Amino acid sequence: MTTWMLPGFSCRDLVAVYGAERWLVGCSANLPCDSKDPPSSKEFEALVQYCENENLYLVIGCDFSAHQTAWGSTNCNDSGEALVEFLDYSNLEILNQGNEPIF
Q1: Residue 73, number of CB atoms within 10 A of its CB
Q2: CB–CB of 14/43 below 8 Å?
Q3: What CATH number is associated with residue 71?
Q4: What domain count does the chain have?
């Protein structure tokens, strides 16, 4: 598949690309486990907003170091709680299959 980088939405811990048909955006996001920042960065939030405004599908592969029972963790941490709130606010959905946690 041919893709094009979206430089306005890419930084050290986030890379976003358009798919060939320009209706799909894919991104890879990471939050280092020692980060004091909430799971969503300004760049990540801007990407989500851009996709919503442009009516684009967004597929995210991420490691936010966020623990939350919603995706199979046995405990919750502040990052997990903040990420659940962001998911609710932004109408994003978790698409993990099965009940196995993904760590």
Answers
A1: 15
A2: yes
A3: 3.60.10.10
A4: 1
Residue 98 maps to a domain: no
pLDDT tens, position by position, 38-78:
656 788 889 999 999 999 999 988 877 788 888 778 888 88
Phi then psi for residue 25, to 5 deg, are: -115, 135
Q: Is 83 exposed, middle or buried (0-12, 13-18, 19+ CB in 10 A)?
A: buried
**Torsion, CA 76, CA 101, CA 26, CA 17, rounded to 10:** 80
Residue with tokens 């939030």: 45
CB 73 within 8 A of CB 53: no
